[in-house]
Amino acid sequence: MTESMKPIQVGLLGAGTVGSGTFKVLARNQEEIKRRAGRGIEITMVADLDTERAKAMVGDTAQVVSDARAVIANPDIDIVIELIGGYGIARQLVLEAIAAGKHVVTANKALLAVHGTEIFAAAHEKGVMVAFEAAVAGGIPIIKALREGLTANSIQWIAGIINGTTNFILSEMRDKGLDFDTVLKEAQRLGYAEADPTFDIEGVDAAHKVTLMSAIAFGTAVQFDKAHVEGITKLAAQDIKYAEQLGYRIKLLGITKRVAKGIELRVHPSLVPSKRLLANVEGAMNAVVVNGDAVGTTLYYGKGAGSEPTASAVIADLVDIARLHTADAAHRVPHLAFHPNAMSDLSILPMSEVVTSYYLRMRVADEAGVLAKVTGLLATAGISIDAVLQREADEVGGEGSTQTDVIILTHDTREGTLDDALAQLQALPSVLAPIVRLRKEELA
User: How far apart, in whole angstroms, are the C-alpha atoms of residue 406 and residue 370?
Assistant: First the structure.
């Protein structure tokens, strides 16, 4: 049998949710996958600290070990799938697999967003591939779309709902009018949120993913440390309700945008017009909107997590590697879509330089002239107002209340300008509580 016809042998590190899904889908669809890849793809070795769990998964079809390094040391293994996660041992193992001349498939967005530059350089040096479709938006082939499908385009911007946990929480808050803490507990009970949900609810996971998409879209190095990261923990049920009344829904978006001064890279809750497709992505689903100069706006929607959806992406990467295994390294798609010696050094803008529009909510004394003062201050700062919603005092504080909420939507303005204006507004004696500021993205 010629080398190219023998099944390609794969070692799997981590037999958890995604690992078991990968094993299952590969076994179930092996004939079809073989017809597509031109050769069989077999997981012949699995490493997991829980060897019992791994043995139950593979039966007698693969060798099970507790030490990942045994997989890397095996000369018969061509591809290593890293599904351990995190920055620690995973980084070491990925670099060792590359040094051993193995291709790597990984779902580890945290590792690549933080250490991607080092890892891709090592792989380039060694002439091996590091494929990471499964690292962003689970089963949605967004990395392939950006790297290959949209390669003719100058990408203008990307906006995505790329964390299912937070989207589920926001959908529930909106549906049931409940506050964040209550819904988080429910999400944990249902298994949508982990026992320690910090990475999800603080926006870190989404920031890892948008960092990778940004690098591919604009041909820059991965720069997670420059991203602006804000989660959903401080969102109030009433802002979700007010946004709705104004025709918006609040979503946690990962946004990256090419502007004259550089690149925006940010994750934060955003008001999105209710009529946009992105505003209507509910529950744990993911969706990414990409705007390119030639193609216009394209939308990618589907399951962003889970055993088999993520396995779908892992196996697509395995097939790519099986097809390109013998190809000259110079003819493969570069890791970050642009050739390593043709990367751009466009800088990531600080938030103060970002231009967008805003939603402001102020608790004010219900007395004459307050609104005029507020709008006057904004006008002096050069911030123009798109809409004002003033609640009746008794709606806000009950019968005989002396306080009311004023909600203002602004037109586009520079964040630094708004920060200065907010400091002045906050100092007004008639402004009775910290001002709530949310960003608004029209995504037009």
Answer: 10
